[in-house]
Amino acid sequence: MTIETALPNPAATRTGRGIPPALFVFALLAAVPFVSTWLGTSYYMTLFSRIMILGMAAIGLNLILGFGGLVSLGHALYIGVGAYAVGILSRYGIVDLGAHLAFMLALVVPVACGIGWVSLRTRGLGFIMITMAFGQMFYFLAVSLKIYGGDEGLVIQARSLITGRGLLETPAAFYGLVLALLAATAWIVHTLTRSPFGLVLSGARQSEQRMRTLGYPLLRYRLAAYVISAVIAGLAGCLLADLTLFASPEYMSWTQSGTLVAMIVLGGLGTTVGPLVGAIVLLLLEEVLSSRTDHWLVIVGPTIVAIVLFASRGLYGALASGRGSEP
Amino acid sequence: MKRSTAAAGILLGLMTSAAHADISIGFLATMSGPQGVLGQDMYDGFMLGIELAGGKLGGQKVTVIKEDDQSKPDVATQAVTKLIQKDRVPIIVGVTASNIMMAVHQRVTGSGTFLVGTVAGPTPVTGANCSENFFSTSWNNDSLHEAMGAYVTSTGYKKVLAIAPNIQAGTDAVNGFRRFYKTPLADEIYAQWNQADYSSEIGAIQSSRPDAVYAFLPGGMGINFVKQYQQAGLLGVIPLVTTSTIDGTTLPALKTLAVGAVTGGSYSPDLKNEANTQFVAGFKAKYGRLPSLYAAQSYDAARLLDSALAKVGGDVGKKPEFRKAMLQADFASVGGTFRFNTNHFPIRDYYRIDVEKDAQGQAAFVTKMTVLKDHADAYVAQCPLKD
Amino acid sequence: MSAQFLVSQMLNGLQFGVFLYLMAAGLTLVLGVMNFVNLAHGSLFMVGAYIAAASFERSESFAVALLGAVVGTGLLGLLLHGTLLARLQQAGHLKQVLATFGLTLFFNELVRIVWGPSSLYMQLPDALSGTVAVFGITYPAYRLAIVGAGVLVAIGLWLLVHRTRIGMLIRAGATNRDAVETLGVNINALNAAVFVLGAALAGFAGGVAAPLLSVQSGMGDPILILTLVVIVLGGIGSSKGAFQAAIFVALVDAAGRTFIPLILRSLMDRSLANAAGPAVASMLIYCVMAIILAVRPGGLFAARGR
Lengths: 327, 387, 306
Description:
CATH class of the largest domain in chain B: Alpha Beta
Low-confidence stretches of chain B: 3-20
Number of strands of chain C: 2
Number of helices of chain C: 11
Structural class of chain B: alpha/beta
Mean pLDDT of chain B: 90
Oligomer: heterotrimer
Largest sheet of chain B: 8 strands, mixed
CATH architecture of chain C: Orthogonal Bundle
Mean pLDDT of chain C: 87
Number of domains of chain C: 1
Strand content of chain C: under 5%
Number of helices of chain B: 13
Distance between the termini of chain C: 42 Å
Largest sheet of chain C: 2 strands, antiparallel
Shape of chain C: globular
Number of strands of chain B: 14
CATH class of chain C: Mainly Alpha
CATH superfamily of the largest domain in chain B: Response regulator
Distance between the termini of chain B: 51 Å
Low-confidence stretches of chain C: none
Shape of chain B: globular
Number of domains of chain B: 2
Order of helices and strands of chain C: HHHHEEHHHHHHH
């Protein structure tokens, strides 16, 4: 069995039961600023901002990975590009969020078109390797750009301004923006996967031959999906730069790409919100464990293995479909 | 609900204002992954410093809150946010890697929290972006290499080849070296980060036959390079001068393979001063190994904080007084002479430390000479702070 | 640039290539026969190196160390396959990637817990610690021994796969597992045997590398990436392709590190070349791989019919 046939048909999980769990997740996220303030600190808003940002990137990647069946191990490169877009413009005094986002698009779209077009000529393990190769290339490129800090990274003086005002300065305001963009991203991906566009993508994952026989120009569909998922990752990168006030080549390392894949599989491949749940679980686990012991990876590793073995639908996938895990 | 919340709040307030009985100090380092050995040394050194002072710094009982940055800047920013916003520590100590320092420096110092760096010293933090809330018990990244540049100049070697990793610290290393070694270098080789096999680079060294090789290859890279250099028969034939390549954390993996190499640094376990004798004995007794420079400088941080906290009666809230107390550096550093420059980086001595066989036939660090005495870094003029 | 320099760089490429082949052989066997992506191969390499270093410390004998590495890692492979990985046989590449990635995290931390965070000490065997005069240069004897060992392994594997009954079963199982099962062959036992062989090869590579490299947590990760590059270029499942691709990758890597800076320095000013050289060198193998895959997705040295 290959990835093509192992995934659930999105139509099947899209029952009335599929919606409440997603709303529940968003309700929890919306409650975080209030809980955090009640606890007397803004820390939890910072923690969950980062979780949501990576969850957003994972949701975007899932468009091509879960629905399209294309395993990209180089997607973190777009997070990096988004972060550097903010960092570079800020360095030259351009601090408006709109300008940052526009610059991100101007960088991500052509790069994604180029990389996507080349990569989509391969399949299976070849696709995994070639996307990882491109990720590594951009990582080393960022390390070499000493003018923008190289491996020591690029410090950003302040968060992006909205129409010239520092509306994002407070943790709560920034959190609200991230949450809103996350919800918008999830909704866009949700709609896309249920649209004719998404069905072609899913169909191609299940049987490429069938779709080609029906006359669909698969490369165009897949490339479009790839670019959209890249833009989502780029957006996540812009937000990450604003959160940490830093841009670094580490944001595009292949281990970061691997972590995104882990979040998707842990949460649920065939679901929209699954990757977000995967991000929440994985990063919270990391947070809790690393404060208990320096050897926390010895627990995270087997946990990932256990989830892959025993919760094949992913944590959220199992919830959403209403059934228990299947072998 | 409101009444019990208020009661809890009052109680909390009472508890915290009752005494400056407890001071929380944050500790940020790379504790996991391949670089974890450095963070472990830093933590061990710092904790020993507190222990040898009776579990207190400046008369105050200390709780150390340790955070692992996993060598990732976004994790590091999150960790310091936790320390500042949730644990509300007034002081953060540590920081292993330069890129982590760049990620957290502004966030920590800008929030009014004091940052005591015990290892990383990237140039921006030393110069243009210096901060009054930052203190280093370490060095500017260039300084170690300046010392070795001075040393190599004194040897009269004419044809020197430098090898460093292709990162900012690597470029800084070669620049720092060249600042004090004026003869043009025969070659500069920038190897890949975490490169395993150096046969190509060693082949290039063999064919160019320099008088000496200057190497800056931290961690596993250093172990790989020195092992392979020795196996190619070059160690002892072409002198190897290194910085941060063969140190307390890597010598145990090299043992006698490294004998004959010359290293440069701010610390060696055999330095003859009272503070160091006490430190090494205590470290060996508690941890069963000799301390590295990472442990030593973190130990120094504990002793520095001890002296400064004592001067302000444990009240870090008195910030101008605390800063002044810190700047006095009224403690005995295990590395020898120590005082702060206007940019809050130390003016200190740098040594030539050879790797030799000791009486038991084991490889050991032997300090040969002081290369640069009371050396200040090259970027202090760029720092707007005036004392 | 002298002939000596060229010869030594060629030899470097050859010995590093042979080392990569030792890693790639096991991985491509497992991938080709079992259709199983084993990212924990790097961890098996690391465990092999650790066992070798630890055994050497006890026994002072390199032969014992190497044997210990091979047997120990083989047993570990058997354990992993039996308890965990056999269940993922049908789960598809993505889940195999993720589970073995989790195993890598686990092993990287486990070796730190068992053997401490510092790197372990290991030295060359005395018999091979000198240099040999070859083609007009002096070259480390040990590295030449690696070349010899690699060639022997390549021949051994070829003989195994093409000249023995079990090799025939392996080839048959890769082509049509159902037919083989119908014939009464225990395909699970066969898969386990292949996995153990792959693990033993990784352990051997680890034992061989231990005197040369820093034996530390995560040492397998950069090697794994290069190994994956080799396999993809060599064609999945092809041992012969793996050999050719390994030499190719090692030569490209060596060329990137030595010749590119030289070339750049002749084209542009020194400081620019010093900045651009390492950047290009680091990206070179990935650029080459991307180009090759774009043009020939099956790999450069892919065996026909696979």
